[in-house]
Each structure stands twice: as structure tokens, then as C-alpha cells.
Design goal:
The complex is a heterodimer of chains A (301) and B (332).
Chain A: E1 5-8, H1 17-27, E2 34-37, H2 50-61, E3 66-70, H3 78-90, E4 94-97, H4 100-109, E5 113-115, H5 124-133, E6 135-138, H6 146-157, E7 165-178, H7 183-187, E8 206-209, E9 215-220, E10 223-231, H8 236-242, E11 246-249, H9 256-267
Helix pairs in contact in A: 3-4, 5-6
Chain B: E1 2-6, H1 10-18, E2 23-26, H2 44-56, E3 60-65, H3 74-86, E4 91-94, H4 97-106, E5 111-114, H5 123-133, E6 137-139, H6 146-155, E7 160-167, H7 178-183, H8 187-190, E8 199-203, E9 209-213, E10 216-221, E11 237-239, E12 242-244, E13 252-254, H9 259-265, E14 269-272, H10 279-298, H11 307-314, E15 322-323
Parallel strand pairs in B: 1-2, 1-14, 2-3, 3-4, 4-5, 5-6, 6-7, 7-14, 13-15
Antiparallel strand pairs in B: 7-13, 8-9, 9-10, 11-12
Helix pairs in contact in B: 1-2, 1-10, 3-4
Classes of the chains: A alpha/beta (301), B alpha/beta (332).
Chain lengths: 301, 332
């Protein structure tokens, strides 16, 4: 049995510079195989700039882990494209391509890339084209579960091709959507252009609840996440059977080291680990969130 | 600038053409398009009739194939491309790479437009779709400011189409999972957002109403309060102790006042949203935009907003409110 790799997904939140650097100094000693670095949500977050992320990547690469530089999920401004070009041009690191701009730059420059979860790869033909472009690893989108990924793999390997590495989000709040609008600024009633970088006050995002008090979503700048911290630990046997190569764990405000240790133990054992986070409905072909009624049991008025 | 109008069925297609659309866009009655609603869209025979009607009046018909097929269903999307070609459509509007690739290889003479669902917001992203699939046009996501649209028009390898009017998706199109998180049904995979079968209205004794989407409370309305269709992005929620439209109000995009800037920028086409809307909407909105575009063509330097135009458009807007949306920095 090949042991699955563990990856630390890109930090989705905005933390102070020292806090971020301290976090990754610790992560260098965690039993991780891959670390994704960089700003994927908002280019206005500059506690660490592009140069800082690249410098940090160089330091962490010395710890024996593979370091991948992650790109912004939504690119609008010329300056954001410039930052992307600096990541790609560096050349020493793979890129996590989170939009088509990143794919194009990697393709033009011959830089290997990981297709991030917001790239929309839904079938084997799209995956094959991206492999031609330089894709080495694929992180399916959040709504793609066990069955869809299995069917894609079947389609891909039917002609004798070998699948690129497969990485799934095993732990964390799911990134659900992105907008031109900053929802943190909106909630605080400040303009986005003078936001004061207030999302630094919400190291795990800003909770959003329904009017009957049910925790529902997390506001994280221009990104919306699901409230639930999803956990595919108990599904590890099916993940293994599916050929998952890498388990992605997203950083959170507290306890990330413990989460890494938990999954490290789990990947070395044939015993199914106990559930620590929420069941991910998407993985089972259901609505992503736990509190919603299932498709099979529609709500009745 | 070309005026591209929605056609949810044959009467709407005819209304759009009769009222001055340069092109209409339509979809098949299945999940290959992003308005896969019951009772909407075209059979092959209806589309054939619609193409004949439009072509006889010098209008074009674009076929929306703008959802994301998984591996098992890919053949269905390929088949839809074949049908669009056979039925005489002038272009297909496609989001997904395998569908674009199939169309380019199998029907090279059929123009390919990159759908808004394809999420191309930059020059390199557009270049990717152009180099890889030979797209003839791209529809821009509703995320860019007018200044960003202007710059992109200068650099894009292909002509650009932008959204001019209609319901406003505030999330980057093609990359929003809010509906699927709650219901399991997604715009990308199933061509629906917030499907009606998951919506439950409840009227209370005091006349107030609540609306739930697959059991999740989206909003609560007072007895006389107008209530719109419940999507997650336009519900009211509690954040930091306050209840408000935390993501967006029920409002529609209206860029009419930007018409001269969009024209000067070199935008190739203006898109009206609303295949799910009725004939009255399509006729009135098309007529208004046609009048505004004709006036601009005749006298670009003296073009000014006419009050009648804005009131005609507002009457069809969600909550009777309109916004410049992301085109205007203050919206962000």
C-alpha cells in the first residue's frame, strides 16, 4: 500500500505577518509532504507580498517538502496578473492554478501546475487537455464527490493513460463562491477600496447564520465558505480505493497541527479514524451541508 | 454593438426578433444549458422554427450549451453540439473545455462563444480559450469594473460581449456552489440555481411569510413586504448581530447609462439576461435597448438617457431596483 501524501492547502484567511510566518515555521516540522503557499482570495491582503511568499517557499523547500505556489482564484486587475507572472516566472516551484489565466501562463512558460479546486475540471477529456498543458496534479472542485471522480478516472484510464496525481480536500471549510464584491467590507459597512483590511480581525472568517439562528456560511472577504469544517477521515478506505494520492488539509485558526497529526496517524493505519469534523455531503453525491434535507428526503412545508 | 436577447421559448424568440434583437440565445430542454427549468427551452422542431424565423428577419440564433458535463454525460453535450449545427444555429455558447474542443474539431464552421460560465476575466484566460478552441467571442463574467472592461477590450484576442441588463449573479459565474451546497443541484452540473422543487413557502397566522430552500431559512417577509425568488445570494441573514442582505439585495443589473462607454471601448455585443422571463419582459426590454442603441448610432455625441427608457427597464427589474453592479467601483 502506497502511503497517501498530506498537503497543507493555501491559507484562505488573512492573518498578521508574524502569525503567518510563525505558522509556517511550525508547519515545516509537521508530517506534511506538500505545502501550498500564497494568497488565493484577495490581492489587497499584503501582510505577505508576492516576494515574501516566494522567499518563504524557498525556506520551506529546505525542509524537504514540496512547495507549490497558489494563484488568486479571481483575477481582475493588471497588477494581479503581474503578481501571477512573478510566481510563474520564478520557475523553481509548481503553481496551483486557480483560474485559466494561471493555466495559460504555466502553459506558455512550461511550468508544471496543479489544477486547484476552482478551475472547473469535470470530465476526463478536460483533464487530458490540461495534462497536455502541464498539469501534474488535480484537485477536484468541491461539488465533485466519490462517484464523479471515479467515473472520471475510469474515462481517463480507459485508453491506457495514467491518471495525474489526485488530491482531495479532506479537512476544512469548503470554498463555495467568489465575487467582485467584498462581503466582509459590506458587513462592516465600509467601501471595498477603503476596507482597512478588516478581515485580519476574523482569522477563521466571519460567521453568517440564518434568521432562525442556524450557522450557515463563513464570509471571508470576496469568498464565501461553508460553515462546517468537513472531514473525510472516516472515508479514508474509499479514498484509498479510489486512488487518492494526496489529502488536502486547510489551515485554520487553531488546531491545524493536531489535524495534521490526526491524518498522519490515520494514513498509516488500516483502522478507520473517528470523525472529528462534519460529514461532507458532496462526497456522497448529496448537498454539501449537513443541516440541509437530503435530495432523497425533500423538505415538506 | 450587437443586441443579444434571451429566448426561453418560441414566442419569446419571436418577441425578441420583432423588437429589434440582432441575435437571440436559446437552449435545449435538458441540462446542457444554465436555465434548465421545467417548461422552458426548445425542442428540435421549435428551434428549427425559431432559426427560420430569426434568419428570415436577419437575426442570429446562438445556442447556449453552457453547463459542465461529467465524464458519463459528455456524449449528451457532444450530441447537443451536433444538433445545434444541424439546426442551423449561428454559434454555440460554451463554457466547458471538452465541449469547446469537440465543437472546434467536429464543426469548425460553427462559431464558438466562450460562455460567461467559462469564467475568463483576463487577457491570458481569453488567449487560452482562443488558442486552444478558436473561440470567436467571449462573454465576460459580471465581476469587472467599467475601467477593467475597457482595458480588456484593448487587449483581448477576440471580440467581447458583456451583460447589459437583467438578474445579477453577484458571484463569479461558473464558480458558485451556494445552490449545490444547500440542495445538491448546481448551476454548473444541472443548469439550475435554487431549483423550485426545493423551495418551500410558509404563510404564518400574522400574514408574514418564510421561505426555505431545502429546509434552510433564506428569508422572512412581513405581511405587506414584497418577496422575491429565494436564492442564497439574495436572502437575509444574521452577521455580527444584524440581519440584512449580507450578500446582495434583490436587484437587477442595468448598464444603460454606460452605453456610450461600452461602445467606445469596442464591446462587440450587449447581452440581456432572462431566458426564464416571459414574452412581455423580452419584448419591452429588447425594444428599450434597441431604441437606445439606435439613438446612439444616429447621434453618438448627443446621446443621453431618456427617462422613459429607465422606467421601462425598472418595471422589469427584481424588486423594481436596478444597479450598475460591478461596473461601478462603489458596488464592490
Amino acid at each position: 500500500m502506497t502511503m497517501m501524501k498530506l498537503s497543507l492547502g493555501p491559507l484562505q484567511y488573512f492573518w498578521p505577518r508574524e502569525r503567518t510566518l510563525a505558522f509556517y515555521r511550525m508547519a515545516a516540522n509537521w508530517p506534511l509532504d506538500v505545502i501550498y503557499l500564497g494568497e488565493t482570495v484577495c490581492s489587497k491582503r499584503r501582510e505577505l507580498g508576492t516576494r515574501d511568499w516566494i522567499a518563504l517557499a524557498g525556506e520551506l523547500a529546505g525542509s524537504g517538502k514540496q512547495v507549490v505556489l497558489s494563484s488568486l482564484s479571481l483575477i481582475e486587475a493588471e497588477s494581479e496578473l503581474g503578481a501571477l507572472a512573478r510566481l510563474v516566472d520564478h520557475g523553481d516551484f509548481w503553481i496551483e492554478a486557480n483560474d485559466l489565466s494561471a493555466v495559460q501562463l504555466c502553459r506558455e512558460r512550461g511550468v508544471p501546475f496543479v489544477a486547484g479546486p476552482t478551475l472547473n475540471v469535470y470530465n476526463h477529456e478536460a483533464l487530458a487537455m490540461l495534462v497536455e498543458d502541464g498539469l501534474r496534479r488535480w484537485v477536484p472542485g468541491v461539488e465533485q464527490g466519490h462517484q464523479l471522480i471515479g467515473e472520471l478516472r475510469e474515462g481517463y484510464t480507459a485508453g491506457g493513460a495514467t491518471m495525474p496525481e489526485l488530491e482531495v480536500i479532506a479537512w476544512g471549510r469548503l470554498p463555495l463562491s467568489f465575487s467582485a464584491r467584498c462581503f466582509t467590507a459590506r458587513a462592516l459597512d465600509v467601501p471595498k477600496d477603503q476596507c482597512g483590511f478588516r478581515c485580519i480581525d476574523y482569522p477563521d472568517g466571519m460567521p453568517l447564520a440564518t434568521r432562525d439562528g442556524q450557522p450557515f456560511l463563513r464570509i471571508n472577504g470576496i469568498q464565501i465558505q461553508g460553515e462546517e469544517i468537513t472531514d473525510l477521515g472516516p472515508e479514508l478506505p474509499t479514498l484509498r480505493a479510489l486512488g487518492v494520492d494526496v489529502l488536502r488539509l486547510y489551515p485554520q485558526d487553531v488546531g491545524t497541527g493536531e489535524v495534521v497529526a490526526h491524518f498522519d496517524l490515520a494514513r498509516r493505519s488500516l483502522t478507520v479514524p473517528p470523525r472529528m469534523g462534519a460529514r461532507n455531503g458532496y462526497w456522497h453525491g448529496e448537498p454539501g451541508m449537513r443541516m440541509a434535507a437530503s435530495v432523497e428526503e425533500p423538505a415538506v412545508a | 454593438m450587437q443586441l443579444v436577447c434571451p429566448a426561453g421559448n418560441l414566442p419569446a424568440l419571436q418577441a425578441a426578433v420583432d423588437n429589434g434583437a440582432d441575435a437571440v440565445y436559446a437552449g435545449f430542454q435538458d441540462q446542457t444549458n444554465a436555465r434548465a427549468f421545467p417548461g422552458l427551452n426548445f425542442t428540435d422542431a421549435e428551434l428549427r422554427a425559431g432559426v427560420a424565423y430569426a434568419h428570415a428577419r436577419n437575426a442570429k440564433v446562438y445556442l447556449a450549451l453552457n453547463t459542465y458535463p461529467d465524464s458519463v454525460r459528455l456524449a449528451q453535450w457532444h450530441g447537443a453540439v451536433d444538433r445545434a449545427a444541424e439546426l442551423g444555429c449561428d454559434a454555440v455558447i460554451v463554457a466547458e473545455m471538452a465541449v469547446l474542443d469537440y465543437a472546434a474539431r467536429t464543426h469548425p464552421g460553427l462559431a464558438r462563444h466562450l460562455s460567461v460560465q467559462g469564467s475568463a476575466t483576463t487577457e491570458p484566460a481569453l488567449r487560452y480559450a482562443f488558442e486552444r478552441f478558436g473561440i470567436a467571442r467571449a462573454v465576460l463574467p459580471r465581476v469587472l469594473s467599467i475601467q477593467q472592461v475597457e482595458r480588456l477590450c484593448e487587449r483581448s484576442p477576440v471580440p467581447l460581449e458583456v451583460f447589459a441588463f437583467g438578474s445579477l449573479c453577484i458571484m463569479v459565474e461558473g464558480r458558485c456552489q451556494l445552490s449545490s451546497y444547500v440542495t445538491g443541484a448546481s448551476p454548473n452540473r444541472h443548469g439550475v440555481c435554487s431549483p423550485a422543487k426545493f423551495v418551500r413557502w410558509h404563510e404564518h397566522d400574522d400574514g408574514s411569510r418564510t421561505v426555505r430552500l431545502n429546509d434552510v431559512l433564506i428569508d422572512r417577509f412581513g405581511p405587506a413586504e414584497p418577496a422575491g425568488y429565494p436564492t442564497v445570494c439574495k436572502g437575509r441573514f444574521e452577521v455580527g448581530g444584524e440581519v440584512f442582505h449580507a450578500l446582495e439585495e434583490p436587484t437587477s443589473l442595468n448598464t444603460l447609462e454606460l452605453l456610450p462607454r461600452l461602445a467606445s471601448a469596442g464591446v462587440a455585443a450587449l447581452k440581456i439576461e432572462g431566458r426564464q422571463r416571459g414574452v412581455a419582459y423580452v419584448a419591452s426590454v429588447t425594444r428599450t435597448w434597441r431604441a437606445a442603441l439606435d439613438r446612439y448610432r444616429q447621434a453618438p455625441d448627443s446621446w443621453a438617457l431618456q427617462p422613459g427608457w429607465q422606467s421601462a427597464l425598472s418595471a422589469h427589474a427584481e424588486g423594481h431596483q436596478t444597479t450598475l453592479g460591478p461596473y461601478h467601483r462603489a458596488w464592490h
